[in-house]
Each structure stands twice: as structure tokens, then as C-alpha cells.
Amino acid sequence: MTHDENIELASISTKLDGRASIEHQIDIHVLDLVSLRSIPEFSLDDILQGLKYVMDFRVKGLKMKNLDLGLMKRLLEVLLENMAGKEGSLLNQRPTKEADLALQLFADFLHEVHEFRVAVSELQATDLCHALKIHRRCQSNSKPQDKEFAASVLLMLTENFPQFSDWRELVKEKDQDDVEKVLKQYNSSASLKHKIPAAEPAYLFPPQSLYFDKNIEKLEAMYSTSFQNGLTSKRYGELLEHYGKNYLPEPPKPSILKMLWTQVTDFIIIVLLIVTVLQFATHETSNGIVLGTVIIINIIIGFSQEYKASKAMEALMHLSVPKASVIRDGVQESIDARELVPGDLVVLDEGDAVPADLRLIECSQLEVVEAILTGESVPTEKSTKHIRKRTRKIPLGDCKGNAFMSTVVAKGRGKGIVVRTGETTEIGKISKLIVSQPHQQTNIQRKLAALGKWLVAVAVALCGIIVAIGVLWKNDALEMLKVGVSLAVSVIPEGLVAVVTVTMALGVTRMASLNAIVRKLPSVESLGSVQVICSDKTGTLTEGKMGTAEIWTSDNSSFSFSESTSLDPSKGRAHKLETKSILEEFSDIEKGVPRAVAAKGSPPMVDVSQDLDDAPSTLTISTMIASLCNNSSVIFDEAEGWKPVGDPTEVAMVVAAQKAGFSKEFFENTIGLKKYCEYPFDSERKLMSVVYEQKASEKNHKTFPEETFFVLCKGAPEGLLSKCVGYLPQQTKQLDFFSHALSSPEPMNPNFQELVSRSSSRMAEKGLRVLGLAMKVVSKSSAQQIKESKKDSTAESDLIFVGLIGLIDPPKQGVAASIASCKSAGIKVIMITGDHIVTACAIAKDLGIIDAVDTTVMRGIEVDLHSEEALASLKPFPVVFARVSPDNKLKIVKALQSKGLSVAMTGDGVNDAPAIKKADVGIAMGIGGTEITKQAADIVLADDNFTTIVAAVKEGRRVFDNIKKFIVYLLSCNSAEIFLFIMSSVLNLPLPFTIIQILWANIVADVPPALSLGVEPFESDIMERPPRPQKEAVVTLPSALTILWQGLIQSGITLVVFIMCGATSIDTNPGVIQIIKPGAATVFKNYGNSLMEKRTLAFFSLTTMQLVQSFLSKSVTRSVFSTGILNNKWMVGAFFLSFGLLVMSIYIPGMNTFLDNEPLSWESWVIALVCVIIQIVANELMKLVARAHDMKNRKKLIRQSDGPSRREFQNIP
Q1: Phi and psi torsions of 417, nearest 5°
Q2: What residues are labeled active site?
């Protein structure tokens, strides 16, 4: 290698090392920003200053033009989050020092690093608008350098990114005048700063996004298309090359033959097939037929379960749309939908399936059914209006300006520009995630498969031992091989799969009665073993409908409402809470006394009168504003009762007025107030206002003076307060409702503004959605001017502040108790919601999800910034996730599963389907859930209630308990046969049973009693013990010892009976000790001639003990006299059924011959009874020892624990 080559390689190495070092430093700072709340030793300023150091000394000056794209996306997220920081009062807000520093870093990275620009290019204008807060740097009192820098950042974005070409989309409409002045003032100087070195060609192609926040005119320029003629052929080719074709990922097609082959090649089935072939080869035809029947049943059961599981994949195959009507080069044509590209102009007609995600540019009564995505069967009315929201992740049902792939046009027609295709469409992303989730066996399936392999290994080993012993005794090798095969048949419980399946099916039936519909059978048991339940908030933990929790009025009075979500006016009422007087509050504000923290528990309250003369007029005026500045209502339907009509938030305000005693109808009909005009709610100004006029009363009730006009207004407290010049004064004895509403206001002052701010913050901290209420009285001419001006500002000025109303979706009744039950059962409950973090935390505290032990919460943006491994390593793991996306849900599930935890996940929309499919137990909502979500789920809740999940968990635990009981029972019985064969072989005795007797014993003694164990009642402590560890086997050490003991007892007693009845002359067998006592010969004197008769007695004795063993298997430690004998009537019935079949197989001619049996004398029954008594005594002695050991362990655990209130469960951080 030359000297120059060495120098070149060294330079490359140094550069790579420098990049890795810079990326490492930036990564550390990003993680610090994400975890800032849990790192008290660092401040936001410290971390941002550290990032600035890296920028100034390692990156700036184009020293490092390229950095990792994923890292830059994460950096962009944390900078956006911290650029909006503000300080100052509600009416005078300015950026914090840290917000300015974050914006400076944003501009620097935008200028210096290509990958950061790529990350920015994937944003929408809405995201930047709400993060940049440029207007706060363009106010009249802003510093000149701040204004110039703000102009510089805006120009850098508008000149280099087509989707940001209009700066007005990056600034709220009400603030655009200030920003425009700054741009005009600093345009020439600012444009020279932060100019990006070169515009990358990739930016010529807009990122695939919904663009619901874009004016449709902007899309025409972005895609170089035409709303009349569509794309040109040349532009289409460019877009096709960049974006690719429009198709969904193909799901793997389920093959019936492959599913059958999977069942046939199951390990246990293969072993049973080999044994069956051997039975036919040795002319044991009856044995082979019985085993063959068992194999067929097992294959059918396994195949049916796998076939059901494939349905979610099958549902995806019908999502693609084959044809699309498109305009290109001015010609409308029908083409293969796969040929669509972003920028194409698509025509929609009634009945059409939408071929891609569209931004609508033309609508004519267009309505689209979006049930496949939202679960809502009512068509969504579409429009071309843009939507300005704080985030691009708005609910799909709110995207009125978009049409989504695979949805159907129900009515009207329209046109739309394609904005997302293929995998980037909403349905494409979900389809890809569902397809990518591999089919997983449930925990019980894995454990039973492991148990089966272990039993087969034991069978092969014991078969070899038997053959070896027989050969040593110089017996015929072929005969001994038959003995070994019969032993293998004894070891493998052929009825196990059937019994497990029936037990789970019974659990399914019981769960259905609890409103939990089980789609996949093994999920019955899986739900009982979950360690974490991840639950939606809305509709699952809460009622799913808004209610008014509190109204605060301008005299510092507070009112609460009982049964706030009940639409029935006769249920619930308003209650006045105990509060300080307004003068006392003003005094505290002037003295700088901090706002008091709300006390826990219910504050003292008194019922409010529903008589107009006695009710507090401030409350009545507040409810008048809340119910009349409102387009919703509550109506009574003869068939369905009370029904809400309109927006849920507005319905809650109408209901609050009813509870206070003064409904919307009271103000409109009884008093005679009629709507004059309205300015609807707008997301920019966040206000709604109406004008009402006093007309004649229909019921001759007292009214306001005729031609009195009210402007009633509601909206965001800060926005409303800024438009108020006064506030409603305190009520005096001289003021009734009418005179109080018309009285002169108190002038606005800083003390009252601070009081409103404190009250609003207090209510928000309780998780309430807070709206302000205001009004003013105007003359007829002013009302006409307000109506004719068509400007909301004429109505929404010089207002009188009246109060605040706080609304919330309250917790469902019984959910808190269910969560407490989960905690006592060692199950962690995690709330996952798209709601705001404050609301989520308030509900979580009310429900007990957040308590003294579990306090950690996390937002969706923080989940985005954590890798799966980093999320899994969090200690403690968060119990509340707020503002999450469907991707976040999937990441949370994977993180928990990587810790070895069993996870249940709830969801309703098709967006939730990937996380539901990935979870150990996926739970879909039956009322609000979409069809694909239900197909992907294991369990569907018919009532969408969390309490149902907990009841189903209890039922799942019962199912596993019972599965374990009958497995212990089956293996105890089968091990008795094994030990009997081994001891007989060692003593060189003939087989105590023939092979057909073994098979009959396994059918008679195994299946009916085991099935009856499957319906055993709940254990008393079933919800007071922690979940089973994931890796714990079905047969644990205590269970194995129980099986061993019970098997030895039964086999030992049977062997003694077989020997003492003189099955063979023991004296003639060398090496065998004489064990027959002198008295035994008399008892067994009738059993000296026929080997078949002696085998029948042994068969009868052992099978009878096995049937009695079913009662003894009701508990490993509790006595049969405490568990009860008659409390499970199915077991009593199964005992008599099996015992009847046993007796029939001995005494019915033909049947006894087929099964190698002979009729027995009455002495045989006495012998069997003595055997059962010995068995019960031995088992009770074993349980006595087990109880003592169990009590010792429990005392040890109690001494080591902090007490029941601090109960923790295994593996949960």
C-alpha cells in the first residue's frame, strides 16, 4: 500500500470516528431531554446548552454535513417539543430562554445537516405552526434581534420546502398581521442568513401525508398538477419513479393442506401414529382402532383452531381496490388502481371504493362510509375545508377533507388529489403491521407441547427399561416389546387434548355470560395468566361520554353535579361546594399566598334549589350560557328513552343545565329567549358566540324586558378572558336572576384575572376540560350590526366574564374496585390513551392506577424517542401513557413482552389491530370495535367494560387451575399404570393388564372425571395470588411429587392385590421373596385358576381407585373433607358414569370378552373397597404434610414482605 493510500484511509477513519463521536454526544443529550423529569440534577437549559456546544464546535461551518437520519428525527421531536415554552400571564405571553435556545438549535441543524432537513421535510405545516410559535417573537415589545431571527427561520423554511411555501400556514391567522410586519421589515437582511447550501432534489417531491391542514390551492403547486386536467404524462412518470406503485403488501394466504400437515407432524401425533402402526403390525387391531380415533379427534381440534386464527389475514385480502377513475392530460379514464401516484386527480362517484388516500378538492353532498377504519357505520360528511389542529395525528373520523383507501362512497360525488399510496395509506400501514406479526402459540399451548415431549421421552426410556428387564429374565424379546409398547400407551394420556379443549370450551361459555366473547380457544387460559393489562381509557375505563363535573362562577362559588352523564332529567342535581369568599381570595392573591392544593376526598356540599327564585343566580346565568350557546340537545324517544343529539361536549353542558333545574327548553320556551344569530366555534379563535333575543313567553312566565338582546359566548378561558372588560358581580338580596343578568359588571382587574387563572388551573389539574363562559347585553341596533357584519369580532368584544365549566368523561362504576382486585392479584394495569396527560393522570388517580407505588407517566412523543430496549429497561415502568399513537401501542407491547411478561391489550379501531395481534391476549371492543380489530383479537368485549376483563381474568385463572388439576389427575392415574408395569417386570410377573384394558381404563377413568374437574368452582384465593411466571411449567415440583406419591400408592396397592390373589406361583420364580402371608391365601382362595380373572380384579381395583382419585385431586393441599364431595355435581355424575361403564365392561357378555375381562364375585368388591380406604388415608397423610410445608412458606413470605398493601408481583419493575 502506498503512502498516499495510507494517508487517505487515515483521513476516512478519522472522519468516521468524528461522526460517531458527534452522534453519540447528540444521542446522550436527546435521551436527557426525554428523561428530563426524572433527572433532577439537570435543567432544560443545561442540556440545551450542551447541544449548542456540540453544534458550535463540532458541526457548525459544514464540518459535519451528514448524521444518522433516525437520530435527527428524534432530535427534531425534542426540539419541537421545547420550542413552545412560554412565560408571563395569560394575556402577555413570551418565549422562555430555553424556547429561544431550542429554536436557535433548530435553525442551526436545519442549515448544517442534510438528514435534519430530510426529517423536517416529512413534517406538516400544522406541526411547525404549533411548535415554532413565531408570533411570540414578532410582538411589538419583542427585541429587534428576536424579530430578525424569526424572519430568518421563516424564510429558510418557505424558500427550501414546497409544503411550507406559504408562511401564513406556519402562523395562526390572528397573529399574521404582526408577523407580516416583521417579514417586511427584515426581509432583505434575514434572507441572507441561514440560507441552506443546496436544495436537494428529493425536496421536489412532497412527503406522503394527509395534508388536511393545507388549503387545496397549495396542493396544485406542490404536485405540479392541475385541478382541471390532472397530471401530465411526463410528470406522472417522474412521480411514479419516485413514489412507486399503489398496492398493499400481500398477506400470506392460509393453506388448508399446510395447516393439516402442521397438525399431522405434531410431535405427540407422530408418536401416537407410530404406536398405532405397531398395534396393527402385531395384529392388535382393536387397540389400533382406538388409538387411530384419538389421533383423528386431536387433528380436527388443532386444525379448527389454526383455521380460525387465519381469518384476520384473510380479511386483509379484500382491502385493495381494483379500479380508479382518474383524470390525466385532461382526459378522464378508468385505470388499474395500482398505477395511481401522489398528485393524481381521482374522481369519486356514489358506490365507488376509494382507491388511495385523497385530499378532497371538490365535494357535492359527498358522504363516505369509514366503518373499516373507525368502526362508525354512519357515513361521514366530507368537505374541502382545511383543518388547523395542534397535531397531524387527529382521529380519522375528524379528517373531513380526506377520503381513505378502501372506504366506500355512500352518497354524492367528489374529486381528490392522491396524497398517500400503497403501504403509506392508513389501511396500508395497518395491513403491513398485521402481516408482519408472526402467529404465536399461547402459553398453555407451549407448556402442553413441552409436557407432551417430556412424557414421550419418559415413555421411550421406560419402554427400553421394560424390554431390557424382560430380556434379563430370559423372556421372549418380541413379547417384551409388546409390553413396552403397552407401557408407552400408558404414559401418553391420549385424552389430554380432548379434555383441555372441552374445559376451555366450557370456560368460553361462562365468559360469554360475562360479556366476554372468546374467538380463540386457548386465550381462555392465557387471559388468566396475564401479568399486565394495557387498557384504553375512553369507553373502557370511563363511561365514554362527557359529563359536567364542576361549574365555577365569578363570585368564587363552585358547583358539582351528581349522575352528570345520565340523560334522564329526573336523575342527579347540582350541589354547592364549600369555598372562600371572593374577597378572601383577592386578599390571598395580593399577599402572594399560593393557590391551595385541593384536598382529597369529597368536599362538603349542599343541594342547590331548583326554584328560580331560590337558586344562585350566578349558577343559573352560567347554565343559561352553557345551554343556549350550544347546538346540541337531549330528546326522548318512546323506544330508546333519552337520546343525545349533537357534540358530546355540548350535550354534557345541556345535561348540566337540566341537573341545575333550568333546561335549554326552560330558557327558550318558558322565558322566551330565541336565537337571533350565531358565530360557530372555530379552532383558530377557540370561541363560539350566539345572540339571543327576548320574545314573548309561551307560558306567561316572568321574562326580561322585550327586545333585550344577549351575546352569549363560550370557549378557551385565556382567549375568552382577553375579550372581557368586566365580570359578573356577586348576587345580593335585591338581585334576582333577571336583574342580576342585566346588572352592571365589576371592572376587570389583575386580581380577578389571577383568580380565573388559578381556578382554571385547579380544574385542569383534576383532568377537566375547562371552558370559559361570558356574556353581554346589547341593544337591538347593536345586535343587527353583529349579525350583518358577519365578523365574529363584533360579537366577541367587551364581554362580561361569568364563570368556568369543567367537563370530563368520568370513570365507569365498578372499575376502581376491579383495578384494586387486579393489584391484589398481582396484575399491573396500564392506561394507554390518546387523551391529554393531565386528564389521563386525573382519571388514573381516581381509579387507583396511579398510587403511592406506581407514579410514572409518559407521553407518546417520549415513547417515540425511546427504543424498544430503552423502554423495556425503564424502572419503574410507566402506568399511564398519554397522547399515544397506534405505533406507540405496538412498541409498548413489545417492550413488555421482551421482559418476559404476559400482556393483554385492548383496542377498538383498525389502527389498534397490530398491537392487539401482537399481545399475548388481544381484546377488542364489541360495541365500538371495527371488524378487522375483532378478527385480530382473541377476545371481544360485548359491553366495552374493563370490569368484564377482570371477571374474564378470574375465569381464566379458574380454567388453568382446573387444567392443572386434571393434568395432575391424569398423570397420577397413568403413572400408577407405569409403576405397576415396572414393578411387575422387575418381579418377573405376567402383565397385570392387557393393552386393551389399559386403553379402556384411560378412556373410562381419564375422560369423564377429568372433564368434571374442568368445571370445578373457583378457589377462594384465586384473585389474591400473583400471576404464574411465564416460564413455570404445568407440572411443577410440588405437582410432580404429588403425582409420584399418588401413582405409587395406587400401583403399590394394585400390585399387592395382583400378587396375593395368586396370579402366579411365586415360589417357582427364583430371586423373588415369599410375601404371601398365611391368612392371605384364605382371602384370595378363589383367584388361583384363571389369569384373566386375576387381571380383571387388578383392573377393577386400580380403575376404582382412579375414579376416587378425581375427588382427591380437587386440591393438592386441602383435605377432601374440606373441598367437599357434592359441591361439583358434574364430578358426582362423571364418577357414576365411569363406574357404570367399568361395571358393564366386566359383567356384560361380549363386551367383557372384547375387553379381556371376566365377571367378578362379591369378594372382589370388598377388596376394592379396602383398596380405596387405604388410598384415602395415604392421600390425607400426604396433604397434611403439604399443608404444614405450605403454612411454613407463607409465614416466611409474610415476614419478608412489607404487608399486603405493598403487594408486588414477579418481574414487574
Answers
A1: -90, 130
A2: 536
